[in-house]
Amino acid sequence: MLKVENVTKYYGDFKAVDKLSFEVNKGEIFGLLGVNGAGKTTTFRMIMGLLDKNEGSITLDDKEIDYSVTDDIGFLTEERSLLTKLTVKEQAIYFGTLKGMSDESIIERLDYLLKKFGIEEYKNKKIKELSKGNQQKIQFITAILNSPKLLILDEPFAGLDPFNIELFKEEILNLSKKGSIIIFSSHRMEHVELFCKKLAVLVNGKAVLSGNIKDIKESYMKKNIFIKGDVEIDKLKNVKGVEEVIEHSQEYEVKISSKEAIQNVFKYISKCFNVTKFVVEEPSLNEIFISKVGESYEK
């Protein structure tokens, strides 16, 4: 288990992370979210022992993270961190050696991953000769070369097309099934919902929202109703509890303020003709994120 307890980090007088706490169990994928400058990268660096914290504790399986456990950690940075004059093979051997792997195990693992990602022919090519998308694949491969116990993924899908996102997704889920602890950060909320069961949202270094995604959605008061049928949009807007009605090409999206408004909308819709759809959906994680971040900046 990775346990972050009441961690605080200052840069001079600036508080970058403020009493942050969360736990990630073996095999779980945890979302750490926030706008740029929220404190995510500082948190990642503290978890890996690259930055000292001012307060709190960070442990992996009840042990403080130091150089004795860094061989079990993988990190995919948002920025490119490849040595572009090296070949893919040389890059893998360099990173693998830093993680305490033998040359034989490095090449065996590299060959497996290159084949999985369909880029075996790039093994002896220099990094600078590859496209941005293939460089991202190599960066991901070097991050998971050691089959890490703890894997930190910061914007792993940057620059990838939908097909390659699926390849990354498959391998991330595979690592999770094998027991890796994974921390996932992305500005794309739909990607977070693909993987994560738990998350924390940071604003100015402080968690403004944390917990199980399912519980967060259920507790969030605003819901969405999708309707197909012959409705009068002005009357629908005047139903008690309706905040907004968005007209799409074939249906209406009704945003409501609480669960109680569902019955009010249903009562109106039951009087309409040709109603073929009435679906109540939980709000998207993107809606909740924007709402919570906005609330925090307004305070």
CATH architecture group name of the largest domain:
3-Layer(aba) Sandwich
What would you call the structural class? alpha/beta
For CATH, the homologous superfamily of the largest domain is named as: P-loop containing nucleotide triphosphate hydrolases
What is the alpha-carbon Rg in Å? 23 Å
Work out the strand percent. Answer: 25-35%
Largest sheet: 6 strands, mixed
Distance N terminus to C terminus? 34 Å
Gross morphology: globular
SSE arrangement:
Layout: E1 2-11, E2 14-24, E3 29-34, H1 40-47, E4 55-60, E5 63-64, E6 73-76, H2 88-98, H3 103-116, H4 132-144, E7 150-154, H5 162-177, E8 181-185, H6 189-195, E9 198-203, E10 206-212, H7 213-219, E11 223-230, H8 233-237, E12 242-247, E13 252-256, H9 260-269, E14 273-281, H10 285-298
Parallel strand pairs: 3-8, 3-9, 6-7, 7-8
Antiparallel strand pairs: 1-2, 1-4, 4-5, 9-10, 11-13, 11-14, 12-13
Helix pairs in contact: 2-3, 2-4
